[in-house]
Amino acid sequence: MNRRLRSADEGGSALVSVLVIMLVLSIAGMALAAIVTNTTMTLVDSRSTTQSRASADAGLADAVGGLRRGTLACGGVERDVPVDSAVATSPTYSYRVVCGAGLATVTATGEAANGMTTTQAVYRYTETPSSDGDMVFFGTSEVKFSYEVRTSAPGRLLKIVVPQATFTCQALIPGNITVGGNIAANGGCTIKGDVNATGTVDMCCGSDTIEGDLSTSGTGSGTVRGTVLGDLHANGTLEFGWEGKRVGGAVTTSGNVKLGNVRIDGSLTMPTARTYTPQSGTVTGGVVRLASVPGPTAPTLPAWFEYKYKTTDFPGYNTLTLVNSGSGPGTCNYFNSSPGTGWTTSIGAYTVPTVIDARACSVLSSNMGAIPVIPVKTNIVFLAKKYDLTALTMKAATGLASKPKVWFITEDINATDAKPTCGSGYGPIGINGTVMATSITAMAYSPCAISVSGGASGISDKWNGAFYGGGWNYGGGIEFTADPIGVPGMSSSSSSGSATGTLGSLVSQRDIAPQEIP
Q: Would the N or C end of the chain have less CB density within 10 A of its end CB?
């Protein structure tokens, strides 16, 4: 009996021992699994962090390279750029450039799986002056953009300013427009930004669209038969059409209103003393009648910028002054007459910034049959009474560290009257089969008109840079790409939303708290 009891006790002890061992092994196994899992997660997180850091560095390098080449402007932004576009799950980077006080701050964020890293670098930066807009046209003659005028401003909206005349749109315009007169849309018009005019609006057709806000401070009657996606604020009578279009925001006016069959998604605010005719229109946000409704604030219009050349405006530049006799180097005919060696050979050979002073010539012309294509190696300033740039192509030479700048300048002979003065013997900057490639930045400044003919020698006009003229003559197609530039003394580049310039030395670089690029 005692043996059986001992045997049972020993068996029970063995079972307990086995259970204890199994428990210990289970705990050890679970601990090992947790260690392996945590290690794996740590390795994955570490890999994600490493990849996101590398992506942020790639974004920083991309932005800095663009600033050095002049292909990226202050205010520039890129989002979610894949490091390897061939891989669907590639890490991405985003960056933004902010300039001010002589510095350019580049913030770049890299993302990979669960990892995010943000790095920030500050460089010294000298901004290039720019004008009050990308395309600025003075004078009282109508400025019209038909479908043949194709405009763009990469990464932002174009800025068009017409201080003294009506602007008529018949094209896609990815920009904001400020007008010292009436705004007209004559069919096929799409304006991607805001419109601010001192006059009235005439949208003739259902195919016309303003995607931003529309503000007209003139007291006359306005007609809206197209679409306004933003708010509409007028200072006079508004008559909407019967095309079944809409206003995406609110409508405010100090005048009478006829709705046609428009749909206003916001409210309609107007004076109680004015006549409201709803017709077949609808106002989703309700009609508000007030004793007094002020009109919109008129836009601030720039004064004409007077420019008269001084040698101190372009320090460090060599100067070539042309004479109006003979035909050899240093003469007007060296450029203007066939074979146009001044264009075809001389300019492409310059490696030091140079001013070509052709003010002694009656005209500076490339219209001599050679169809010059010039690889520009450095900054060039042209001075002349007028220009015929027929069949002229200028582009950057290969292997340059920064984007060259080219100025075509006609001085204002009366630099004190605050208006464009196109003097006797002076004339327009003529663009006809002219190409200012995107690898350079070109400025056309003239108190006379900027005149586009288009298509000489079968070449489509292209211009990368800015226009600032005493008028706009249009007779042919042109592709205009905004790239801020101005003549010395013009307003700061903030007026056009972005700026180009020269990137200097690195001031500081550090990692900051991870953040999305807005």
A: N
Question: From CA 274, how far away is CA 290, in angstroms rounded?
Answer: 10
Which residues, including other chains, have CB under 8 Å from residue 209's CB and lie 6 or more apart?
A: 189, 190, 191, 226, 227, 228, 229
pLDDT in tens, 279-290: 999 999 999 999
- Cα separation of 217 and 202, whole Å? 13
Element (H, E) at 123: strand 115-127
Q: What is the SS3 assignment for 186-226?
A: CCCCEECCCEEECCCEEECCCCCEECCCEEECCCCCEEECC
Per-residue tokens: 40:
């794996």
Position 495 confidence tier, pLDDT thresholds 50, 70, 90: very low
User: From CA 254, how far away is CA 217, in angstroms rounded?
Assistant: 10
Instruction: Output helix, strand, coil percentages for the chain, rounded to the nearest 5.
Output: 20, 35, 45
Q: Which amino acid is at 432?
A: N
Q: What would the pLDDT profile of 115-158 be if each residue is shown by its tens digit?
A: 999 999 999 987 665 568 999 999 999 999 999 999 999 888 99
Integer angstrom CA distances of residue 32 from 25, 39, 46, 311, 511: 10, 10, 20, 78, 35
Question: Against a cut of 0.70, is the pTM above it?
Answer: yes
Report how far apart, in Å, the C-alpha atoms of 48 and of each of 52, 55, 81, 113, 157 are: 6, 10, 17, 6, 36
